[in-house]
Amino acid sequence: MGTVNEKIKSVIRNWLQIQPSVGDTITIQETNTFEGSCFRNLLWYRGDASELHQYYTQTDDLMGNAKFWASISTNGINFRKIHTGLPAMIVDMLADIIVDSFNKIEVKGNNDAQEKWEEIAKENDFKETLKQAIIDTFIFGDGAFKISYDTDISKYPIIEFCSGQDVDYDYKRSRITGVNFKTRYNKKNANYTLIEKYTKSGIKCELYKNEHLLSDYKELEETKELSEIKDNSFIMAVPMMFNKSKKFKGRGQSILEKKLDAFDSLDEVWSQWIEAIRDNKTITYIPDDLIPQNKNGDFLEPNTFDRRYAKVGSNATEDKGSQITRENSDFDYEGMLQSYITALDLCLQGLISPSTLGIDVKKLDNADAQREKEKATQYTRGKALDVLEKVIPKLVVTCLKAYDKAQGKIAGDYEATVDFKEYANPSFEATVETVSKARPGQNVMSIEKSVDTMYGDSLSEDEKKKEIERLKEEQGIIQKPEPSLF
């Protein structure tokens, strides 16, 4: 019996063989290129409802085109699509917050270079140029400052910012070694693309006609005045990106990129809310024989906006004739509001605080919760400032070197720093209150500082000194001249 059991066990062991797993093959198709993503993000920033509708109804998202902006109304049933404009508000507000805190740029240890930079900044309206650069970087993910010379326009270097859709980068060991600026010219006979390659060796121009490289880049009227630069020791371009894209290697990521579905949902909720308001108006039910007619005897048809009446069958009985009735619909205001709040919250999470945009959240949060949400704005601003504190000094130094080269000089060595003011600092009153609580019963401000803060420029310096002396005498503080040692 034991021998039989051993044979059975041996057979089972031979059957239980584990084969190695066959590797899975999964194919994922991207729905957009980097340039296509830039174009889509730009449409969201532009905020035109008609453009969004046209874009999403002409593209295939490989998900059945179930998005709100891709939906098409049924024949005879029209509904209104409304865009809230939230993406543009987020981008513009963040750019304003960053630029408003911009304080000054200092070229260390070189007064002459400081004066030159101030002239360059004034000539290029640098603060406005910086604001537009920040906006473009938020929208397209990256871009680059382009420094060029045109003596017909200015004797100083010209600073331009080209967004990510018009820029390519050359990489070597994960470092940017060149910036390629693309300019397109649409002619009747063909489409031309000018590529200006900025490297440490200088600037090289290439002109393409319908994707074919031409032997001479000066064939066009717009490009014949361009000149190449050789034997340069620095790149006359400064790239900028706040976040690196995990989807497109070597490119930046727009702050709108991961929020597009949330923006679509918010527009859907708000559009449905407005549609529900129209649908829930007081409706008048009118029998066929009582419907108002025009001068030609045709029935007046209500449109989707006024929805004044609905047609019902006539009631021609002996005891009861046709009657006009009215009914009021029930509007779920609380449900609509909660849906809107939830969709809005998803759009703003990780980007910006509702109070920064001026959104009334007092019904939702207390004061402490609102202050905590304000940290989202500070985090987004801080990440952008970390990049700008590196990019702006590099841009200043590059402009000064380019100016030296234009003057026939050897490019000098410069060091620049940029300073930004703090954001959302507590008020003076709140600071005094907080310090007073930390040091109960102790003076947190001297008499001199108290008088200066209270009266400011309303009193002269002599009047302030007399007030300080009077207050000290009241407190028993007597000042006497120090006796001489001799």
Portion of residues within helices: 25-40%
Outline the low-pLDDT stretches: none
How many DSSP helices?
A: 12
Mean pLDDT: 82
Give the CA-CA distance, first to last residue: 125 Å
Question: What fraction of the residues are assigned to beta strands by DSSP?
Answer: 15-25%
User: What structural category characterises the helix and strand content?
Assistant: alpha+beta
Biggest beta sheet summary = 6 strands, antiparallel
- Element string (H = helix, E = strand): HHHHEHHEEEEEEEEEHEEEHHEHHH
* Global morphology: extended
Which radius of gyration do the C-alpha atoms yield? 35 Å
Give a count of the beta strands, DSSP E runs of length 2 or more: 14
Task: For this entry, give a set of tags.
486 residues, alpha+beta, 6-stranded antiparallel beta sheet
Summarize the structure.
It is built from 12 helices and 14 strands. It is of the alpha+beta class and 486 residues long.
Descriptive account of the structure:
By secondary structure, the protein is of the alpha+beta class. The protein has helices at 2-15, 34-46, 49-58, 86-100, 111-124, 126-140, 260-279, 333-348, 367-406, 428-438, 447-455, 461-474, and strands at residues 102-107, 142-148, 158-163, 167-172, 175-186, 191-199, 202-209, 212-213, 229-230, 237-241, 283-287, 309-312, 325-327, 416-420. Among the domains are: 89-255 and 382-420, no CATH class; 281-328, no CATH class; 428-474, no CATH class. The protein is built from twelve helices and 14 strands. The strands form four sheets. Strands 4, 5, 6, 7, 8 and 9 form a six-stranded antiparallel sheet that branches. Strands 3-2-10 form a three-stranded antiparallel sheet, with helices on one face. A three-stranded mixed sheet has the order 12-11-13, with no helix packed on it. Helix 4 (86-100) crosses helix 6, helix 7 (260-279) runs antiparallel to helix 8 and helix 11 (447-455) crosses helix 12. The longest helix is centred in the last third of the chain and has 40 residues, at 367-406. The mean pLDDT is 82.
